[in-house]
Amino acid sequence: MDFLTILKPISGSSIKINFLVFEEPGNPRTTIGFEIPELYAEPVKPGYFVIPEIYKRIENE
Asked: Domain residues for 61?
């Protein structure tokens, strides 16, 4: 796989992923993995989304 390769998305939610990158058949060159063992529903704290007054508002062109 090179940097121009585009992987097609898989529908659904990722709970556990193991991603292996091979340069040649055999041992993987790179491995990446993650797992979400538990999910919790918690109340949203609106303070996390408040922008502090010390920030200036800018307009993008």
From this structure: 1-61
For residue range 11-57, list pLDDT tens digits in order.
877 788 888 888 888 888 889 999 988 888 889 899 889 998 899 88
pTM exceeding the 0.85 threshold for the entire prediction: no
Cα–Cα distance measured from residue 58 to residue 29, given in angstroms and rounded to the nearest whole number: 44
The answer to whether 16 and 36 have CB atoms below 8 angstroms apart is yes
Residue whose tokens read 């996390």: 48
User: How far is it, in rounded angstroms, from Cα 53 to Cα 59?
Assistant: 17
Instruction: Name the domain count of the chain.
Output: 1
